[in-house]
Amino acid sequence: MTATPDQFPGRTRVFSRVGVRLEVAHDVLGAVISHFAEQLGHERDAQTPRLDKINTAQQMIKEVKDIREQLDPADPERIEKTIAWLSPYARHLYATDVQTPEAQQRAKQFEQANASLGLEGLQVSLDDLVVQARVIDGFWTTEQAVDWYRERAKQ
Known about the structure:
By secondary structure, the protein is mainly alpha-helical. It has two domains: about 15-95; about 100-155, Helicase, Ruva Protein, domain 3. The chain is about 70% helix and about 0% strand. It has helices at about 15-45, 50-70, 75-95, 100-120, 125-135, 140-155. Helix 1 (about 15-45) runs parallel beside helix 3 (about 75-95). The chain starts with 16 loop residues before the first helix and ends with a helix.
């Protein structure tokens, strides 16, 4: 005879889908943190470390850790949104395939724009990098990115 969950009323189930999804979210966030930690390490080991790159990597790590700390098993919707938002970015960071010339061009343009913002004392946020990755990888058009920023500004 096979046991079923209703045979044990009031007992906590061993398997929790939300718990598994929380682990997935933590894995995605961990991959992003690892990327920035690696950048931080490379920059600190450089002959002439660039303070702006160190500060940016530290800021990104802080943002990701804040997201991780805000995840709650009682809020599965937020967990799913985090996975949906950041997993394409994590894949982008660790992509091993060669980018198309168009994607390489878009990446260079964003790199220049981010450097320009840095010179003006403005920080690029994690959300900015996620949007940029989606445009670089061709998942979004620039119009979709602009629409995303418009929607965010309304909130």
